[in-house]
TrEMBL record:
All copies of domain AAA+ ATPase, residue ranges: 251-391
Cofactor(s) listed: Mg(2+)
Annotated SUPFAM superfamilies: P-loop containing nucleoside triphosphate hydrolases
One Pfam family linked to the record: AAA
Organism whose genome encodes this protein: Perilla frutescens var. hirtella (Perilla citriodora)
Protein name, per record: P-loop containing nucleoside triphosphate hydrolases superfamily protein
Amino acid sequence: MAVSMSSMPPASSIFAMYASVSAFIMLIQTMLNQLVPRQAQHYLLDLLRRYFSPRATRATVVIEERDGMSSNEVYSAAETYLCSQLKPDVQRLKISKRFKDPSLSIRFAKCERIADTHDGAALEWRFVNEERRKTSKVIDEDTDNVLVESEKKYFELSFDNKFRDKVLNSYLPLILERAKVIRAEKKVVKLHTLACAASYASSFVWDSINLEHPSTFQTLAMEPEMKQKIVDDLDRFVRRKEFYRRVGRAWKRGYLLYGPPGTGKSSLIAAMANYLKFDIYDLELTNVKRDSDLRKVLLRTANRSILVIEDIDCTVELPERKAAAAADSHCYRPRDHQFTLSGLLNFIDGLWSSCGDERIIVFTTNNKDKLDPALLRPGRMDMHIHMSYLTPDGFNLLASTYLDVQGDDPRLSEIGDLIKGKNVTPAEVAEELMKCDDVDSSLDGVVNFLKSRTNNNNNRNDGKIIKDEGIEVDKAKHEDIRAKQVVVDDIDHIDISNVTN
Ligand SMILES: Nc1ncnc2c1ncn2[C@@H]1O[C@H](COP(=O)(O)OP(=O)(O)OP(=O)(O)O)[C@@H](O)[C@H]1O
Ligand SMILES: [Mg+2]
């Protein structure tokens, strides 16, 4: 962004001003000819000209599309802001829409002038699109994409020079904020997963698709107070930019979600992303072999995003934990990886989080008691959230979203009583609710399902439990894990002791 001065008062007043200044200087020159030596005359006249020449009254800010090889945030914010409040005199626009994008993307197609006002200041924007004779290739630092530039685009923002401070210190920051809000409203949340780019040996790229997960806080069956605490915590986090800066902390927040399979951990992550409109980076650690690779992939994640590491107890092995993990976990996978949990945590706590803003990190586990203490120590994960088996309140919510049956229906209280004391997951009950279209049959199905389950255990008739990823686990071993979880769950229903207010 460059600020330039130009003298642009009305033509008549410029003429009048110059005429009187010139006459005055000529008079002085005549006097000087008689009084002052010739060498000193030049110096004095130069001083006088500078002093009396008219001052610049207009300032122009130039905002180019690119700043070197990076894209210019101010340019993109100005484009978003100005296109969001198009005036009828804008003559030509570019409209596009990618499949699945919810709304149209609008850009200027040719040079345009747009007027705006801010706090008493009249502002004039000019969009300029200059064709280039020669195309040039640049690599976008933000996206690593190769861009072919055949045109130069920039905005010029002109205003009376007396409003210079107002424009730089309040108008442009306001436009950055407005653009952020407009983009957030329109934003399609993306899910990024790691892919190994064949063309760059051992380098990783994030592949992205639109996040189609429809989970929201409204559809999530959880204790209402717990849900509210999470929503409040997210709200507080995103509005506390200044707070984090003031106390010298990286603007990041960590959540540990723990609980049995099918209780909604992944659904909660999707609900968080949909609520905040933050992209998700799903980091599958088994794909990463070294600490250095991990750093590279983390540094390629964007701000306002959620980094998710699922099943952290299974994917990060510490040497001393290998034996125990091999003995009693279904998900132990031998690996030759040269990175460590402490490497991951140090990087997340240190460099990575300090070079970005609004970062959320979520770890999930089915076995909180198997986690390394380094992950659980105070200050590491800000909030520990227990995703529990289904409760009567949770069932009411499922009945309302799946069947449109409300809480005052007498059949719900019967089901609520059956649910108390039984370890059934929301996923299991949701499956029952999906079996038929008819409300009565669905509720009968849930009642039969619940009656078939004995209190507080997960007996199934086949003696085996099929877990995620198709791995079969002995029922006895699984129940041993569940039993431990029940004890842990009772203690740590929800731990928000480290939540800073
Ligand atoms: N709390 C919940 N509220 C609403 N639906 C839920 C909830 N928990 C689970 N479900 C339903 O069950 C499905 C599976 O849940 P989800 O994948 O979120 O569980 P999870 O805890 O992540 O399981 P895992 O530990 O196996 O990864 C969801 O798609 C959703 O339909
Ligand atoms: Mg999951």
